[in-house]
Amino acid sequence: MSKEQSCVLKAWEVTMRKTQQAKKRANSIFGTVPVALQTDDDATTTTEENDDHESSTNTSSVGELYQEERVLPNGDYYTGQWYDSFPHGHGKYLWTDGCMYIGEWYNGKTMGKGKFGWPSGAMYEGEFKSGYMDGTGTYTGPSGDTYKGQWVMNLKHGRGIKSFANGDVYDGEWRRGLQEAQGKYRWRDGSYYIGEWKNGTISGKGTFVWSTDGDRYDGFWDDGFPTGNGTFKWDDGSFYVGHWSKDPEEMNGTYYPSGKEGALDWDPKDVFDNLSEYKICSGERVPVLPSQKKLSVWNSSKRVEKPRRISVDGRVSVGLDRAFEKMNMWGSESGEGAADIDSTTRRDLDAEIMRLEAEGLIQSLRPSPVPMRLPKAGKKQGETISKGHRNYELMLNLQLGIRHAVGKQAQVVSLDLKHSAFDPKEKLWTRFPPEGTKYTPPHQSSEFKWKDYCPLVFRSLRKLFKVDPADYMLSICGNDALRELSSPGKSGSFFYLTNDDRYMIKTMKKSETKVLLRMLAAYYNHVRAFENTLVIRFYGLHCVKLTGTIQKKVRFVIMGNLFCSEYSIHRRFDLKGSSLGRTTDKPESEINSNTILKDLDLNFIFRLQKAWFQEFIRQVDKDCEFLEQERIMDYSLLVGIHFREASVAGELIPSGARTPIGEFEDETAPRLSRVDVDQLLSDPTRWASIRLGGNMPARAERTMRRSDCEFQLVGEPTGEYYEVVMIFGIIDILQDYDISKKLEHAYKSIQYDPTSISAVDPRLYSRRFRDFIFKVFTEDD
């Protein structure tokens, strides 16, 4: 008898008692499987007389499929087809804790159709892939919960029906273990909801029908309750139409009787109280996952390596499975399961899945991302305004007015301003005839009038922002002409850039001018109190009035150009946190480094160093509180990204990847190593070289959106990181929630989900904006 066979016998004697007990339990669950032993001429088999002491062994040559029955060193039991050192074909495996799998194997992995049973009585029958419940299958829990449908890596994913032990039933779509998209939930009393779901809760557009009296609600939902426009209908034909909210102050609507006159003894808040009794059942937890179970296998008799343990999905136990071992919360047989896991566990699972994919240990479930490339370099923005341009005279008037206004102003002595300085009536008119006056120079343009709004305030702002008056005049009024951007903005305003890109000039509507003047005192106090504020910087507010028959007024504001940096900007994003219309309408071939992309185009999560991230959180909160108090909405976070490393072929190089010879480097941009960045950020005294939102080193993690989710704002992280320098700030802060925006909100709410549109109340806008931004920006740990 060989040494290996002796070990088998000893193992058998030690574990016989508990193994036989486990075998009986397994046979009671799955039934017996006949074992037809196949032998070769040189094989040796044991006799029936010593079956109580020896397991049958087979010394078939390596690489040949044969039948085997083995008690493994740790007490596990396997019977079925064997190939080399692994179960392969059809077989049954019993773990000492009572878990059992019977079905198809491939090189030691559960692959194909099979059954997995737990000691609690729970059972899964269906398809497996690499150790995971994956494909179509049915899970029956120990308490009677049943799910029949599609699975992906132990999670309900796709179409499926779940019947709960309490009598509730859900029939619809699932995503990563939770109800998502379209689905119908029927409670045990017969009432049901049919419509949209998000992350396991009723959210979106849908209908709820009460079984007791036939009443129904049709409209929009959020977190299980009516939110937004909706209609409540009684079975007698009467109905109530209005805006629904948990906040009684925001509730309003109209009752339409069916024809019978009479007072309505009903309160819309009763609907919320009634719906609070209809809970979505979470179900029960799946016990230990099949992919967590390990196999104890022997190597071929022709090998001398020490026996190793491998998991069901084929991973050798050398530390790779530690992340899964940490998920012992699934080991309990109570509570929710893999199909109903909490968000923390879900993130852990996502991270483990991505790690295994990266190491090639499992096949990726998502399409392989195409390698990222640097976008095409865009031309210098704007058309130079030269003689003959339609706005040439306007540019001359602008330059003359600013030269006059800034040049004659006295230096600011104190930043403490009187209230009268912010009075909208505080303005100076100056006439500029072509021949000149005692105070104005002669010029070649037509006569015009120049107005300065609140000149002392903007002079103080320029000092606060450390703008040198001489440099300011030289940038705007120097020999170099302004550049007009190719097309006006969505608001109809025109934008002009100075030749050095430091300043941007925007034409203003009268309503915007009024908003800025109204909030000017609050704006001044805010930027003075918060040096790191992200809101756009205003340097001047002016008006040019053309004389003669036209009598045209052109108002404009001078702002800082956020993207004036020594770094070239490779990607630009305008982010609001809404989804309706928030994607670029350009084909891929026309997108370059100057293209401003939107929320649904975003494919990154930005990770900031801890100290900067905490400051970012605080400042965004302060800025949004300021804008909310001023009743401002429709603002956005403008983000510019400079990728620090790319190959000569234009492919971006992920952090940690070695750069091939011929590495791309932007020779005009400063370079910071990772060590330099860490040292710089850990020492606050060295922060002067960077500021919040300006030239900030960060890491950008690539994301990918699910193809089945049209309006997924933030994609799934891929674990692919890029070293970047970021520039960002809050822009477009002059739109208040006026009557036009209220009408826009009412109109679009009828056609679309109210939470997806930009025109919403400033309080809601601020909350939604922050929620989105704090998902896109995270702490780099």
Automatic annotation (TrEMBL):
Biased composition, class Acidic residues, residue ranges: 39-52
Gene Ontology terms: cellular component: apical plasma membrane; cytosol; plasma membrane; pollen tube
Biological process according to GO: phosphatidylinositol phosphate biosynthetic process; plant-type cell wall modification; pollen germination; pollen tube growth
Keyword Lyase: no
Keyword tRNA processing: no
A molecular function GO annotation: ATP binding
Chain ranges of the PIPK domain: 390-777
Region (Disordered): 37-65
EC number: 2.7.1.68
One Pfam family this sequence matches: MORN
Domain of life of the organism encoding this protein: Eukaryota
Record's catalysed reaction(s): a 1,2-diacyl-sn-glycero-3-phospho-(1D-myo-inositol 4-phosphate) + ATP = a 1,2-diacyl-sn-glycero-3-phospho-(1D-myo-inositol-4,5-bisphosphate) + ADP + H(+)
Keywords (A to Z) from UniProt: ATP-binding, Kinase, Nucleotide-binding, Repeat, Transferase
The protein, known as: Phosphatidylinositol 4-phosphate 5-kinase
Species whose genome carries this gene: Brassica napus
Record gene name: BnaA09g36300D
